[in-house]
Amino acid sequence: MSNLETVPRETRCTATAAARPVVERLTGHAVALGGPRAMTVTRTLPSRGRRMVGAWCFLDDYGPEIAAMRVPPHPHTGLQTVTWLLSGEVLHRDSLGSLQEVRPGQLNLMTAGRGISHSEESAEALLHGVQLWVALPDGDRHTAPHFEHHADLPVLEEGDARITVIMGSLGGAVSPARAYTPLVGAEITLSGGADLPLEPGFEHAALLLSGDVEAAGSRLERGALLYLGSGRPELRLRGQGRLLLLGGEPFDEEIVMWWNFIGRSHDEIVAFRQEWAEGAEDGVFGTVRGFDGAPLPAPALPTTQLKPRGRVR
After folding, report:
1. Core-most of 21, 42, 55, 118, by most CB within 10 Å?
2. Would residue 193 count as lying in a domain?
3. Which part of the chain is the Pirin N-terminal domain (predicted)?
4. Per-10-residue mean pLDDT for the chain, 313 residues long?
5. Which domain covers residue 118, as residue numbers?
6. Which stretches does DSSP call E strand in 155-307?
7. Is residue 2 part of a domain?
8. What is the pTM of this model?
9. Residue at 168 is within a domain
10. Is 203 inside any structural domain?
11. DSSP letter, residue 280
């Protein structure tokens, strides 16, 4: 999914993380995905106070609502896009020639690497899902772009929790999706209580998808990400509902995230934008074929220098 803001803010990131368990509520803000009949998403990463959880650097939560998704072809660099649905169907096209419909319980994972473009669309239906980005470390961010679809993901049970491991590993279950840093992403369906084993060296966060759930003694709220810090050997969950667990080894690099690009400097971002604006079919981002409409134009760059700093204000 694209960041469709016409005046995207610079996101400055470093590796600061809470080196102990904390409970910090990050309230999301509403973003319209284009047009007068746009679907509205709630963005909790990056937030005003905290930019990343491990390598997870972007989180949009949308629905449930009757809506049609239409995100024109747009570029990405230096990241992976993770599409996860709870209801509805979304069609993915990319400049590699991939054409894939994603359904609830299936993972679409696109690694942008040095550059890719893609589109997403759906018929009008009940849509509910999340879109996430994972920042690639410097040694892998220029890798060749590639696409993965995983319809069969590992599931484990802990207490009254049924857990689908979307990326990374949890409780001995390992996702087949390729990850470039140690992390975890999991959907949890809870029907009572559970104590989930965690990697203490990871920082973690939880997002309520539906129902009434407490994590680490704090009630989850729709539209807010509960940041849990690190140093937790387990996470106590109580209630009935569904939630998303994110975690990872604190990302130890500074990055600049602007619009749909992740880079390391102002000049890189300028070059990425220029490449997309020129629109060469044989360029870095290629061409998405089959989408009925024009590519998304690049917004204007800010008048100030983009700098890789300040993940936590």
Report:
1. 118
2. yes
3. 41-134
4. 58 54 95 71 92 96 94 97 98 98 98 98 96 97 98 97 98 97 98 98 98 98 97 98 97 94 97 94 94 96 84 57
5. 17-248
6. 155-158, 161-170, 173-174, 183-197, 203-215, 218-219, 224-230, 234-248, 255-258, 261-263
7. no
8. 0.92
9. yes
10. yes
11. -
